[in-house]
Model the fold of this input.
Amino acid sequence: MSNADLIAAAREAAEHAYAPYSDYQVGAALLFEDGSIITGSNVENASYGLALCAETVAVSRAFGEGRRGGLTTIAVVGPEDKGDGAPITPCGRCRQVLNELAQLGGTDPLVLCVGKTQVREVALSALLPHAFGPAHLD
Done:
């Protein structure tokens, strides 16, 4: 599985976003050690605080399918025609949610932050240094 394939999966997921308020469609794709991909798209709500980010939807789907770790790579894409075209990164909440899944498998996944013309590659641990996780509760 190439990074380009994972980004393509995230772009396809973004097409299914429900974003009537922001008109900012986000897609996320999670790659696991076994080669499987789980995607998610953002879901907005008239009560803005109840919106779900694409990464959170994808992680929820992964947990719903019984996955507990094995996360190797994450791709996050937004609309190419919004903002300055810079790569987008997961928000703080999503970083924490992704970290939970990663720590269960002892991985530090690569995050592909996709912009209009650039892909920024960064480890999740760099996006969320000194992260709180399951091991802190033992």
